[in-house]
Every structure is written in C-alpha cells, then in structure tokens.
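The protein record reproduced below.
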Amino acid sequence: MAITKNWREPGKKIFSITIGGDFCPREDNSKFVAENAADILKEIKPFFKKDSLNILQWECAVTGGGSPIVKSGPNLRCAEPVLGALTELGIHVALLANNHTGDYGPSEIATTEEAIRRRGILTVGTGKDAEDAAKPLFIEKNGVKIAILNICENEFGGARKGKPGTNTMDVLTNIEQIKAAKKQADVVLVALHGGHEVNPYPSPRMVKTFRAFAEAGASIVWNCHTHCPEGFEVAGGVPIVYCPGNFYFPGWPTAHKTWRTGYLTEFLCDEKGCYGFVITPYGSTKEKMFPLAGETLASAEKYLLGLCTALNDPDELQSLFDAWCTGAGAGYLGNVNTAHEDAWPPADWNDGEFVKRWIGVRNLFTCESHADLLANTGRLIEEHRMDEAKAGRGRIEKQMDPDFVTW
C-alpha cells in the first residue's frame, strides 16, 4: 500500500501522470545498464502504467563526443544504448532541464535531444537558445490538453541568446509563463530541477517559490535534484513535490542512505487539473530497483510523512535551514575563501587556471539554492548565531541516514 491522497472528486476525463526522479546511469555504468535494463527495472516497471503519461528526469548528456565544460561538480554522460531503459519503462517524455545535460558543451545538447527522440520519446527543457528552451511541451491525454514547463536553477549548461542549453529559472518570468500556459492548456505541470543536495528539507525560499507557482496557475509543481527524498504537500488544491529522490543513480560511494531510496509520484488528473496523488516508495541498487513492502514500507511512509510536517511550520523550516547552513553554508564560504588571488585584478582574465579557480564561485552566486545558502549563512554570521543554529544539525543528519534503508 502506498501513500494516497485525494482532495476532490474526479471529473469525467480522468488520467494519470507518473513522474520519476533523477535517472543517471553515468558513463561507468553505461554498458551494464544497456545490457541489464530489463532486470534492473522489472519490479518498478508495473508502476509506469500503459495508460499513464510517463515522465522521467534524465540527468546526463547522451553523447560520445564533445568536450567536458569547465564547471564545479562532475561532468556526466552516458552512451546511447542506455536509452533502452526509457523504452523498457514506457517513458513518453524526458525532462532535460538540469545541471548536467550541457556537461559536454552546447553542441551535445542537440545530440542528446536527438538520441532520445529517436526512441520515440519527447523532450522538454532544452533548446537552440533561451527562447526555444523555455517553450512548454503540449501533449494531449484522454481529451485533456497538458502543458509541461521544465525549468532548472542557474548552474551550468543554461541556454542564452544564440546559445543552446537548458531552460534556467527566472521566477518572475516563470510566473508569467505559467499564466500563459494555463490559458492554452487544462493541466499545467511545472517540473523543476533545483535545491540543496542531500538535505531532506527544502529551504523556506523554495517553499515560497513553489507555492507562488501553484498560485500562478500550475496544476502540479514537481521538483528534483537533491538526491534524497523531501516532503510533499497540497497547497490550494495543487500538489507540490519538493523532491522524490533519485530514481536510478548508482555508483556514488560517499552517498548517504537516502541516495538509495526515493518515491514514485503518480498524479491523478482530469479536465480541471489534479485531484489526487499516489506516492510509492522504492529502493535502488546498481543491480535493481524495487518497491518497498511490509515493515520496510511502513517505516518509509512514516519517514516521508515526518519530512512533510516542517512544511507547515515556518519557524521550524527556517530553523532547519539555519542548521543546514552551519555545515554546507560554511563549506561554501570556504570555497570563496580559497579562490583568492595574490594580486587583483588578474593580469589575464582568460587564463585557464584562473577560470577553474573561480568557476565554482560563479556557481555559488548564480545558482538560486547556492546563493540562498550563502545569504542565509552570512546573516547567521552577522547575528552571531552560527553556534546556536548548529543545534538542529543532529535532526537533519539522522534524517539523512534513516534506519529503514538496509540495502
């Protein structure tokens, strides 16, 4: 039994939208996944129903060419045969707005799109320039018109004027895009990619932003990126998923237990929008994905519902974010500190080593979640509250390694 919630009676034209989180086989696992996709996915496959609109977040470039861009964080790609996994699941749409689609340069954006589309799968969230990348994907299901807006935070690989890339976040513009899409579609799905990695709680800014998207006309607001499950809620009849965790992202040796668990989201829809959802917790290893059952499922459901409680307590949510900043925020400030130069300004702004030292700092200021972290950490320092804020760290760390994850 999964977590289910309905908040109104369904209309006449009912259907479902099933969305899975980050799928990233990575280059090292490409051959294994291509050869074993059926076995890896056989236990989770039944939850991607044939009559559902099935969507998956695809988080790596599909290419054997290009050159790795200079960035902070890893450059991720895989070989095209891995895409057989999407066919195996019956995926209809791949979400591409994320911080890894552009890891091998703008030219490989189109390569990735084309590889996926050759499988008969639609893509959204990338384009030949910023205007093209921002276009919604319109699709019809059971006589209902659906608009999918795919948006990521401003890390690396973003589209610009005259440059291919991903559709990056601009909140005020996004609100206008949602309003425009609502005039053209019955159901508006806003699928995002952002947040604080391995933090089981969204920041207060993210909660405010996603609720604003719901108020602007989104029927569903769904986010991933954090590589761990976060909570979910229904705000004004609109479901908001802050992160379902990884879908399939094997081989990360330093990960917390939450890296290996997540939940599948099935949204129950009709001509008026979304009227319910089904949350199905699962586990994953390199060898297989599996829905949870028995006592493990009961423990996972209790854990997930516990993550949701802070969403309706602004003081608690802020306290948890303050605690997170005393660790991650302090670490990010350390990155700024170690990027200093002996002489300023530099003699050569284009020197390769100079760029490498400062590209990570650029990311801290341009990515919404990173900037949020720096700003809040700065306030804690100003107010002499860093030591006080550490009090909540234990609660967060416990949630990062829940007891029910034993695989």
Summary: The mean pLDDT is 96.
